């Protein structure tokens, strides 16, 4: 299963992912790590599209290997979220704007999500999200 943790920069996506990924023995894909590996810090529309495609590709590769995957990245528009096609989406609604005006300008609040996080307390939210996923999708269990 692909679990997407999305929201504005500074909302706590990475911190939550660090807690949630081990709960499902999931591959964790972090946007900053992927940008660093690709040496691509281009935040134009073209650069963001390229990054979203990389994130999707890495997630799909993990799923094809029968792994759960937790992906944390801004995923700023309804279109990018639809194309990412997560099995479960967490919206980090913990801040109203980030320190990056260009991201604030293009960010669209999601209309579809499975879980909304309203304040930063990652260990508590990870537990609640895990339970919600199990309730909705069954125990994903460790994959090999």
Question: Could you characterize what this model shows?
Answer:
Helices cover 47% and strands 15% of the residues. α1 packs across α6. A five-stranded parallel sheet has the order 2-3-1-4-5, sandwiched between helices. It is of the alpha/beta class. β4 (88-92), α5 (101-106) and β5 form a beta-alpha-beta unit. It is built from six helices and five strands, in the order βαβααβαβαβα. The protein has one domain: 3-Layer(aba) Sandwich (Rossmann fold). The protein has helices at residues 13-23, 31-38, 45-64, 78-84, 101-106, 122-137; strands at residues 2-7, 27-30, 69-72, 88-92, 115-117. It is globular and about 40 Å long.
Short description:
The protein has 144 residues and is an alpha/beta fold. It has helices at residues 13-23, 31-38, 45-64, 78-84, 101-106, 122-137; strands at 2-7, 27-30, 69-72, 88-92, 115-117.
CATH homologous superfamily classification: P-loop containing nucleotide triphosphate hydrolases
Mean model confidence by pLDDT = 94
Main β sheet profile: 5 strands, parallel
CATH class annotation? Alpha Beta
Unreliable sequence segments: none
Helix/sheet category:
alpha/beta
Distance between the first and last residues' Cα: 13 Å
Strand arrangement, major sheet:
2-3-1-4-5
So what's the overall shape?
globular
Helix and strand pattern: EHEHHEHEHEH
- Using DSSP, what is the number of strands? 5
**Helix content range of the residues, please?**
40-55%
| DSSP helical segment count | 6
- Strand percentage: 15-25%
Q: Compute the number of structural domains.
A: 1
- If you compute it from the alpha carbons, what radius of gyration comes out, rounded to the nearest whole angstrom? 14 Å
CATH topology, which one? Rossmann fold
User: What is the CATH architecture annotation?
Assistant: 3-Layer(aba) Sandwich
